[in-house]
Amino acid sequence: MSSTTPDNQVHWFRHSSPYINAHRGRTFVVMLAGELLDGPALATLIHDLALLNSLGIKLVLVHGARPQISARLAESGIESTFEQHMRITDAAALDGVMAAVGALRLKLEGLFSMGLANSPMHNASIRLVSGNFVVAKPVGVRNGFDYQHTGEVRRIDVDAIRQQHTAGNVVLLSPVGCSPTGELFNVNAEEVASTAAIALGADKLILMGNRLRLADGNDNLLRELSPQDAGKLLAEDLFQDSDIDRQLTAACHAASNGVGRAHLLDASVDGALIKELFTRDGCGTLVTRETYETVRGARIEDVGGILELIEPLEADGTLVRRSRELLETEIHRFAITERDGMVIACAALYPFPDDKTGELACVAVHPSYRKGERGAQLLGYVERRAREQGLQSLFVLTTLTAHWFQQQGFESAGVEALPGARQSLYNWQRNSKVFVKLL
């Protein structure tokens, strides 16, 4: 993605096709924080959303309005009052809320209507549909504070939204909800987004904010969190920025209630939405109950991925060549590390039950993932399988990676340490070194 050369563009486009196929027909709820709607990147974000729509993704767009509401109230001489990150909305403030939200809604409708010949949305013909999809109820009085016209989401009109999706429309939800009595309530945009994602059974909730980046103590991006991990971060109050608190809370809520994946994206990264959805590693933080990366036994459908992984190593002599037919026959011997559908590491175990030992073979890790201890994790999985089969040791033959195996506890041995059946197959021309590890 960092290179703009034609060859790299072709390479990226080819590798994005699995995601294009996987996302088609799926429902994504995307929230844009209020500060993005007055920022310079808004038009580009709309272009990216239009691209998602053109790829057959069913979109629900939720927009924030907090800074715009505060600005409207300040212009009217009304002081903004917050409790527990919620604005206390009296009758005068509600007028400012409706004015700010209405202006933003019209602004977004205008941007989705762009169709200039020199714009990315030429001939897109996208209909952005808004309405009373959000049903709200009053927050009421809490801890002595009357929140007045501040509300909570009671429910989302799922059937109406799905009708719009069937018609090919993008649905826009604003942070204002209607009650059955005809009243309007100022509601939290993050709550609207997470509640809509849960109600719709959305495949993804995507929360985008300015500088929305979750990092550890060393400023390394936190790429994946479970809802439990996210809850711990919230409990520790590590993020003083209330915007991040609200957005992480929404992601955690959605991921804990049936939404497959919730993404937090820094919209200041150019193309963050496209990078997150159409590249293997993305560029944001994923909150999910699913395992994004897993170690498991290989299946017949993994043969193609294993071949793609090991072919470069076979070409340079690191591994002995295996045909597809042989690999299909021996697939039950293999274990793999799978990352979002891609085989990024593999290893095979060939047992010699009479000698209580097994051969570790065809160990390979994708070049892009060699710094994450994945080889060690895969080795641990193979060792557990070996113990389950009653094996007491593992041996490996290698020409180029002796140091790595020594770091994993293997010790140098001679050819005579191999089982008799394996000694007879030893390739003296290859002259591999032998290492053994006791289990």
Automatic annotation (TrEMBL):
What domain of life? Bacteria
Cellular-component GO terms for this entry: cytoplasm
| Record's subcellular location | Cytoplasm
A Pfam family that this protein carries is AA_kinase
List, for all copies, the residue spans of the domain called N-acetyltransferase: 293-432
The record, for PROSITE patterns, names: GNAT (PS51186)
Q: Does the keyword Lyase apply?
A: no
> What's the EC number here?
2.3.1.1
Enumerate the GO terms in the molecular function aspect.
Answer: L-glutamate N-acetyltransferase activity
Question: So where does this one cross the membrane?
Answer: none
Q: In which pathway does it act?
A: Amino-acid biosynthesis; L-arginine biosynthesis; N(2)-acetyl-L-ornithine from L-glutamate: step 1/4
Signal peptide start and end residues: none
Its family?
Belongs to the acetyltransferase family. ArgA subfamily.
NCBIfam families from the UniProt entry: N-Ac-Glu-synth (TIGR01890), PRK05279.1 (NF003641)
Q: What else is known?
A: In bacteria which possess the bifunctional enzyme ornithine acetyltransferase/N-acetylglutamate synthase (ArgJ), ArgA fulfills an anaplerotic role.
- Name under which the protein is recorded: Amino-acid acetyltransferase
Q: Lineage of the native species?
A: Bacteria, Pseudomonadati, Pseudomonadota, Gammaproteobacteria, Oceanospirillales
Gene (name only): argA
